[in-house]
Design brief:
- The protein has about 250 residues and is α+β, with helices and mostly antiparallel strands.
- The chain folds into two domains: about 130 residues, Jelly Rolls (Sandwich), CATH 2.60.120; about 100 residues, Homeodomain-like (Arc Repressor Mutant, subunit A, Orthogonal Bundle), CATH 1.10.10.
- About 40% of the residues lie in helices and about 25% in strands.
- It contains nine helices and nine strands.
- The strands form two sheets. Strands 1, 2, 3, 4, 5, 6 and 8 form a seven-stranded antiparallel sheet that branches. Strands 7-9 form a two-stranded antiparallel sheet.
- Helix 3 packs across helix 5.
- The protein is globular, with a radius of gyration of 18 Å.
Length: about 250
Amino acid sequence: MAFFEKHGVEEKEFFRLTSLKNYHFSIHFHLAFEMIFVSDGQLYVSVDQKEYQLQKNDLIFIFPNQIHEFKTVDYSDITIILFSPELIGDFFMNFKGVIPDDNVLHFEEKIDFSKLSSIYRQKSFLYAVCADLINRTSFTPVKQSPQTKVLYKMLLCVEENYSSDLTLKAVAKHLQYDYPYISKLFARQMNMTFTDYLNHYRISQACYLLKNSEQSISEVAMNCGYNNLRTFHRNFIKITGQPPKKYRELD
C-alpha cells in the first residue's frame, strides 16, 4: 500500500507510523490527521500556503483538509503519524471547523515512538500533543471558497487515480466541470499545471515505494501511472535530481 494511497481513513481508530529519510511529498490533503516529527535534519513544510522550516525535535500537526507539502532540506530523518479523528474524538468535535494559526510544536528531546505499541498509549500521546497545541496557539475558523472546494475534488481525483492513465480532461468529465475552467483554476490555485502536479505526485509515491518495498523499478513505475519506463526515468531525474536506482541505494 502506498503511503498516502487513501484520501480518507480506512477504518475507525486508525493509527500508522512511518519513518522516512530524505523524503518529500507533493501538495496533497486527506481526511486523517497528520503529524510529522523531525528526529534529525531539516524539513520544509507548507500548510495552506504558510511556510515552516522544521528543525530537530520539531513536530508539525496538520489538520484534516489542510493542503500541505513537505521537502527535505539537505537531510532529514522523520516519523510521520497518520491517524483517524476517532482516536481523539473529544478534541476533534471541539475543534471541528477550525485550524491552528501555528501548526508547529517543539520537543526538548526525541520522541520514543516504540512506546506507542497499544491503542491506550497512542491516544495518551495524541491527546498530550493536542493539549500542547491548545496552549501554544490560537485557532481560526476554516473558510472554503467554491473554488477551493473544486480544487479539493481535483486533488482527490489524483489521489484515487494517479496509478491509471489520468488526464485533466478525464477529471473534468468525472467532476462535470468545464475543462478550460478547471484548467485555469488549478493553475491559479496551485501555481503549476495539472500535468506537472500529477507527475510530482506520482514521483513522490514512487520515492516511497523505492524505499519501502521490494518492487522492481519497472513495477514501481507502472504502479505509479507510468507505462513507459523511459518517461518515468526522465520525470524522476527532473524532480529528484537523480535516477531511481541511485535514489533507492542512498540511505
